[in-house]
Amino acid sequence: MPKKPFKSAAEDLIPPRLTLSSLKSAAAGCQACDLWKTGTQTVFGEGARRVKVMFIGEQPGNEEDLSGRPFVGPAGRLLDDALDTAGIDRKQTYVTNVVKHFKWEPRGKRRIHKKPNSTQIAACRPWLEAELALIKPDVIVALGATAAQSLIGPQFRVTKQRGEFLESTLAPYVMATVHPSSILRAPDDETRQLEYRRFVDDLKKLARVIK
Ligand code: SF4
Fold first, then answer.
1. How far apart are CA 5 and CA 154, in angstroms?
2. What is the dihedral of CA 43, 48, 50, 52, to 10 degrees?
3. What Rg value do the Cα atoms of the chain yield, rounded?
4. DSSP 8-state assignment for residue 58
5. Which of 15, 86, 119, 153 makes a 20 to 30 Å CA pair with 162?
6. What average pLDDT does the segment 77-89 reach?
7. How far apart are CA 102 and CA 110, in angstroms?
8. Residue 185 CB partners (closer than 8 Å, separation 6+)
9. Best substitution site from 124, 125, 128 to test ligand 1's pocket, by max atoms within 8 Å of Cβ?
10. What CA–CA distance (Å, rounded) separates 22 from 39?
């Protein structure tokens, strides 16, 4: 993980005894960056304590913000389908984001996703580091460029290096692929199906290493 540029106020909120519930409760009151003002609630990671695979996306979306749960919107449903096709049980995975509040801008009556900036990503990093320390996954899969660059480094290009296992101190296996929301944004059905198949192919690689 790249060097921390500053001490986040979130570091002082990490409970001394790490459990998923203590972390989630502590993160609910986080105001370490300005996103707590625009998001409805902190959307913490979700999954079992002992899993082999941790998926890390960018930030919660509109549905996740309202429900308080990660990957439950359209992108999460696509991830579920792709995991099923690749032969991976979602119950065997933990899903989270590098930023735990929804960043958005208004467009008419809709709330449109806005990419978090480097300060917000750095401010939220103590929560992700605590999740990693607790879960200790065998495999980390970064979903999309924001997560990949935060975890692997700013030079990482998902378009060129997706689906490759990389050396990392974070976990025995680290891979990045596209965020499922990018598949949903494909310009036409044919492209969407092609991108979905490529996504499943990436997931099948991790299915092989966790078997
Ligand atoms: S985005 Fe992260 S650091 Fe910012 S307020 Fe939410 S939980 Fe805290």
1. 14
2. -80
3. 16
4. S
5. 119
6. 96
7. 13
8. none
9. 124
10. 21
Q: How far is CA 92 from CA 33, 48, 95, 168, 201, in A?
A: 31, 7, 10, 22, 18
Tokens representing residue 106 in the block: 């208004």
- Global pTM value: 0.95
Q: What are the φ and ψ backbone dihedral angles of 120, each rounded to 5 degrees?
A: -65, -40
pLDDT tier, 4 (very low <50, low <70, confident <90, very high otherwise): low
Distance CA 70, CA 111 (A): 17
The pocket around ligand 1, CB under 6 angstroms, is made up of 10, 27, 30-33, 35-36, 42, 99-101, 120, 123-124, 127
Distance CA 8, CA 65 (A): 22
Q: Which token pair is 180?
A: 């499922």
